[in-house]
Design brief:
This protein is an alpha/beta fold. It contains 12 helices and 7 strands. A 7-stranded mixed β-sheet has the order 2-1-3-4-5-6-7, with helices on both faces. The N and C termini lie far apart (about 65 Å). Bound molecules: ribulose-5-phosphate (5RP). Ribulose-5-phosphate binds next to helix 7 and helix 10. It comes from Streptomyces indiaensis.
Length: about 290
């Protein structure tokens, strides 16, 4: 089939290649002309024959909104837009309604696989009407990993991004657990080769996983992570997971703590710990450290 792909960055560029390897025709548009096959969304839409499927793979928020707004003007009834970015699931219904007003279908798709997806395939979680999903199915089949799993029609519009958001929340907590265990192992004198402990865990243990394999890769590159600052950003999905938990009164202590640990990583000093030190000093005369 033919696919229009908008956004050819780290994810989109490799996805174009994987879909092409499966024998499909992909026309890619990116603001960077060095990456693009066509030079505008107008040209992209004009060169595809209907019913068109356009996969949007740009940053969540304003970039995705602007792209969908423009596609709503350019596409025709029967065409389908897929949002494959890490959009907040609450945006999906709005996008579906905006496009449905023009007779254009909408599917939201959470995509996991990172820079390894070209070779390993991408795990896909999608939401939308069966009729719209069917139009995109050959692309899902091209992108997904080989094997029985790795792809799911999770439910109605929004379900794909909701499932991906929860996946990323779990990712936060798993990474935090490996990171905490690694720090404790590094702290004690009795363990003399932490990297080899991590490596040994890759087979036979209860905690073996791809994230563990990646941790070993990172330690092979920089055994004690001396070259890095302990500073971690976040792109929003951890926050949205915690917000959804609050809305639904579902306790998520591990995921919430892993999000807050990232916030703590961005502070040079801890204002709240200054207050705790001050209070201990006030009520008990406990020693404080001064700058
Ligand atoms: O989707 C992903 C992996 O599954 C992204 O890499 C992830 O969104 C990164 O999130 P954050 O910046 O919040 O750590």
């Amino acid at each position: 089939m033919e696919l229009g792909l908008v956004g050819l960055g780290k994810m989109g560029g490799n996805m174009r290649e994987r879909i092409r390897r499966a024998g499909h025709t992909v026309l890619g548009y990116d603001r960077n002309p060095d990456l693009a096959d066509v030079h505008s969304l107008e040209e992209l839409v004009g060169k595809l024959s209907g019913p068109r499927v356009i996969w949007v793979m740009v940053p969540a928020g304003e970039a995705t909104q602007t792209t969908i707004d423009r596609l709503a003007e350019l596409l025709e009834p029967g065409d389908v837009v897929v949002d494959g970015g890490n959009s907040r699931w609450t945006d999906d219904e709005r996008h579906a309604e905006e496009l449905a007003a023009k007779g254009i279908g909408f599917v939201d798709c959470g995509v996991s696989g990172g820079v390894w997806g070209l070779e390993n395939g991408y795990a896909l979680m999608y939401g939308g009407d069966t009729e719209n999903v069917a139009k995109v199915q050959p692309v899902f089949d091209a992108l997904k990993p080989e094997g029985d799993f790795g792809s799911v029609h999770a439910g109605k519009v929004g379900a794909g991004h909701f499932a991906k958001m929860v996946h990323n929340g779990i990712e936060y907590a798993m990474m935090q657990a490996y990171a905490e265990g690694w720090e404790l192992l590094e702290k004690v004198d009795s363990v003399t080769d932490v990297r080899e402990v991590f490596r040994s865990w890759q087979e036979g243990t209860v905690i073996r996983s791809w994230l563990l394999d990646l941790a070993v890769n990172a330690l092979d590159e920089d055994e004690h992570l001396d070259e890095l600052r302990g500073y971690a950003q976040d792109s929003g999905e951890g926050r949205w997971t915690v917000e959804a938990a609050i809305d639904n009164a579902v306790p998520l202590p591990a995921i919430t703590a892993s999000l807050f640990a990232r916030f703590a990583s961005r502070q040079e000093d801890s204002p709240q710990m200054k207050m705790i030190a001050a209070l201990r000093n006030q009520f008990g005369g406990h020693a404080v450290e001064k700058k």
